[in-house]
């Protein structure tokens, strides 16, 4: 019994038996080349995830909005925007902004690192 693979182009799921090294499998419907697995995909995923974690911290510390209004130069970071929303009693919008722009991306990066380290 072969492995089930799906075509990346048309989505056709088909059974593929052992493929000799150096040969190519093509989709029965659209004749697109089917890739079973990319070489060193876990190592590359881990490297990109660690890079994302390293860049996540400065990305939240640098200003996201810079404005000049009547001669006043104002810079605001995401965290300053969230804290100002909480100080203005806009708890729902502040929480929504915190979850969508700070907490969720951080948890996704940490989860991706955890998955790539614990997979067999």
The percentage helix is: 40-55%
Strand order of the largest sheet: 1-2
Radius of gyration: 23 Å
Using DSSP, what is the number of strands?
Answer: 6
Biggest sheet character: 2 strands, antiparallel
Percent in strands: 15-25%
**How many domains make up the 3D coordinates?**
2
Specify the structural class: alpha+beta
Number of contiguous helices: 3
| Helix and strand element order | EEEEHEEHH
Q: Give the integer mean of the pLDDT values.
A: 88
In short:
The protein has helices at residues 41-61, 78-87, 91-118; strands spanning 3-6, 13-16, 25-26, 33-34, 65-69, 72-76.
Give structural notes.
By secondary structure, the chain is of the alpha+beta class. The chain has 2 domains: 3-34, no CATH class; 41-118, no CATH class. The chain is 49% helix and 18% strand. It is built from 3 helices and 6 strands; from the N terminus they run ββββαββαα. The protein has helices at 41-61, 78-87, 91-118, and strands at 3-6, 13-16, 25-26, 33-34, 65-69, 72-76. A two-stranded antiparallel sheet has the order 1-2. The model has no long low-confidence stretch (mean pLDDT 88).
């Amino acid at each position: 019994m072969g492995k089930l693979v799906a075509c990346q182009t048309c989505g056709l799921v088909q059974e593929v038996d052992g493929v000799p090294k150096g040969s190519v499998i093509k989709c029965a419907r659209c004749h697109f080349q089917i890739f079973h697995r990319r070489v060193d995909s876990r190592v590359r995923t881990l490297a990109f995830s660690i890079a994302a974690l390293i860049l996540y911290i400065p990305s939240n510390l640098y200003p996201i909005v810079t404005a000049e209004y009547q001669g006043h130069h104002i810079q605001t970071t995401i965290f300053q925007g969230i804290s100002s929303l909480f100080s203005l009693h806009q708890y729902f919008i502040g929480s929504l902004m915190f979850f969508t722009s700070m907490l969720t991306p951080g948890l996704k990066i940490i989860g991706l690192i955890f998955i790539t380290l614990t997979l067999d």
